[in-house]
Amino acid sequence: MAAITNFFLVMSNDNAETVLRVGAEMDYLSSHRVTWVVLTKDTETFQCKYCVHLDLTVIHARPQEHNQIYNYMFDKYAQSVLYRSRDGLIWTEEEMEAAYYLDLILLISRVIVHLPGEGIGPIFIDCNRVSPYEGSHVNFSGLIEQLPMQNDSGVYGRWVLDDVSYMNMALRIAWVNIQAGQVKLIQKVATWTSTTGIQMESGYSALTNNNGVKKYIIVTVVQPPFMMKTVVDNTTVYYGYCKDLIDKIKDILKFEYELYEAPDGLYGTLNDNGTWNGMVNELIKGNADIGVADLSVMAERESAVDFTVPYYDLVGIKILMKAPKFEYTLLKFAAVLEPPVWWCFAAAYFLTGILLCLFDRYSPYSYQNNKEKYADDDETRIFTIKEGLWFCITSLTPQGGGEAPKSVSGRLIAATWWLFGFIMIASYTANLAAFLTVQRFESPIQSLDDLAGQYDIGYAPIEGTATLTYFQRMADIEEKFYTIWKDMSLNDSLSEFERAKLAVWDYPVSDKFTKMWLAMTETGFPTTFEESLARVRASESTTTGFAYIGTDARGCHVVAALYMWMMMTTTTTLKNYRR
Predict the structure, then answer these.
(1) pTM above 0.70, yes or no
(2) CA distances in angstroms from 405 to 246, 392, 411, 418, 501, listed in the order given
(3) Among 190, 293, 464, 508, fewest CB within 10 Å belongs to which?
(4) Structure confidence by residue, pLDDT tens digits, 60-79
(5) For the purposes of burial, counting CB atoms within 10 Å of the CB of 237, is it exposed (0-12), middle (13-18) or buried (19 or more)?
(6) Peptide bond into 461 cis (omega under 30)
(7) Residue 554 neighbours by CB distance under 10 Å
């Protein structure tokens, strides 16, 4: 029923209001695509109690007087009968039938008067008794001959006497303007006759011109930030750039609209069987008048629907993938070496400090046990546990550890610690440089070629988007090029010299998009951006998991590799009324 745009009601006012009630329940009264034409003999003031909140213009037709004398007579009579009517232009059903029978009686009277012979005079009949008719007899053959000759204009017009006799009357067509369920104005806009058809009055060009407020059905797809929705008191509320845009247009053009989402949530792509889906399908079927969303302009879409001027230009396709994790802590330097290495270093540090204390106390050659021998030395040092640990830690610095032990055993321990410290410092410096370098190159994907050249990260665009169509078409074009090259290479009709020119070591046409399309198919296409974002966030690292390819690149814990290799424009689409 969505394809029906004109309703013709040939019935009484009561039945017409019943039909309008059903139309109001189906929201057919508020649709600008529907025209209501009421043809009825009930010509009293037309009421529409089901149109309380609507402004409508109903096309109303009634018979129009033809003879000016009768026109004057019936206008006088109509003014007295319709004095209570607010319009005073429409006859009642009884008046129209009286005028019809008047024309018929006048025609028959003129025919009888002009019949040859004695004619017919009045006769009085007693209805209480049965008696044969004794008056004049009618010559019916002469009556039929007189009908065309006495067919003069009456109230409505002339009679058409042929195989199907009828009154060649004219219809007066008027606009009945209904505001808030009440008839406010009736304007004559045209006249219809069986010979001339519809003739518009001066100042009017079409019957469908009316002052009613138009209401459009708008289809959309939720895609932040262009169109978003939320639920307030169990009611879905839409907001976003496209919502604000259509509201501004509504304020300028003065119309109402009803917004709904495409049933499949897609923008609209042409399937292999030639059918459309998404928003475009809703527009083609007539379920919607306007599509408002971030819809990209494509060649096949332009053949099915009309587009407005783009409002969002130069949109590049981007890669959205997992962002590398950077942990900034005060102990960042400790991450260079593994925890067991640090534990071993701490154990060696404390063990060396304790050994220096023990050897200095019990060795007979230490300063502590031979103070008289080293009385003339300027630098003397007794190695307690505190001094031993301080000696070990300062030995790792360019300043040095200070006075070394006097005993041979103490000096042997100190030399061992120096060698161990030199190796540890060199290892730490090398690992620190490598650690910082690896962190800087942890995200290797910087372009589409980098993404196509690896197999650890799965990638795909959203189902039904222009990005998916782009990759699918590029893969199809590469396949066609390959078929052309293969057919040329294996063409037996070519000479050996011409075939030799086609012989190469490698495939001469790139198959990058063919391989990428196969990888996308294996990965699976997400249906919404939220699903794509969830799969990106669920990736373990920047080198594994999933990467989203599309025009929308936003979200926390993800990074956009801004590589634009295809440009497109975003616009609003309209139903193609030329088709």
Answers:
(1) no
(2) 88, 12, 6, 13, 86
(3) 508
(4) 776 665 544 444 444 444 44
(5) exposed
(6) no
(7) 12
